[in-house]
Design goal:
single chain; Rossmann fold; 2 domains; five-stranded parallel β-sheet; 11 strands; globular
């Protein structure tokens, strides 16, 4: 069985499941989800998507505490073990993704690029249906901003987020395309910090604060979105209804899922 190591928070888990599901689709055999690392996750994350994995089909839960260990992975990548595949350059097309799926036996990475996904529309529908079930219908706002602060990041060099100028540019671009917006709704892991970093936007900003799936529900139903460099942000834009999705260019941002094709990068 080909196995994908699952790691990180909800957004990263979605990337790993999407990649594993794509491997199963391309190879015609079940793919394993190695969740052993959650016993010692440095940020206290827990695997939260067992129900989604079951409804997606073609996925099986596995546990490989040795293979999934960070140090073991570093050694195997250094030895260039053919069957142990670490994340590198994203495949250029579906044929290249199929070759990658066929070549490896154990896959260790975050796979934060839609190039690692097969059948995007079906995948989006599966994830969207799951998210809709977790967060029943909420109000539909004209503009939602998601701001991930990265305050919990252990390494200071990895805490970079877009500055206030980015949000001013993003708002101007959305209003150029869609016309004036009224209230801006903020979703964040720390609303006070996010409000300070947004700067003085020329529109009123209010916040909604709920459980993680409720926040995702606000994002996927927004008419327009401004995202930050976050996998949680990325999935809100990828699965959502937004007419315009603004995403930052990479610059010095460490945490940075590759933008989806439907995103507008500023």
């Amino acid at each position: 069985m080909k196995t994908v190591k699952v790691q990180g928070g909800l957004g990263n888990q979605l990337f790993c499941l999407a990649f594993a599901w794509s491997i199963a689709r391309l190879t015609g055999e079940a793919a394993g989800l190695d969740v052993a690392g959650y016993g010692a996750d440095r940020y206290g994350h827990r695997f939260a998507l067992a129900d989604l994995a079951e409804r997606m089909g073609g996925l099986a839960m596995t546990s490989h505490p040795v293979l999934g260990h960070r140090l073991v992975g570093a050694v195997l990548r250094r030895l260039a073990m053919t069957a142990y595949v670490g994340e590198s350059a994203a495949p250029r097309d579906l044929a290249a993704l199929a070759r990658l799926a066929a070549r490896g036996a154990y896959f260790d990475g975050y796979w934060q690029d839609e190039a690692y996904m097969a059948d995007l529309q079906s995948l989006r529908s599966l994830v969207r249906a799951f998210l809709d079930d977790q967060a029943p219908a909420t109000a539909r706002y004209d503009l939602v901003v998601h701001y991930r602060t990265y305050q919990e990041e252990i390494r200071p060099s990895r805490r970079a987020t877009p500055d206030g100028a980015y949000f001013h540019r993003a708002l101007a671009e959305i209003e150029r395309r869609q016309g004036p917006v009224g209230e801006i709704v903020l979703v964040s892991d720390d609303v006070a910090v996010a409000m300070e970093r947004l700067g003085d936007l020329p529109r009123p900003v209010t916040s909604v604060s709920g459980l993680v799936y409720a926040d995702m529900g606000v994002m996927i139903r927004a008419r327009n979105l401004i995202l930050t460099n976050s996998s949680f942000s990325w999935w809100g834009g990828f699965c959502g209804d937004a007419q315009t999705v603004i995403y930052p260019v990479r610059g010095d941002l460490y945490h940075y899922p590759a933008p989806a094709r439907r995103f507008v990068c500023l």
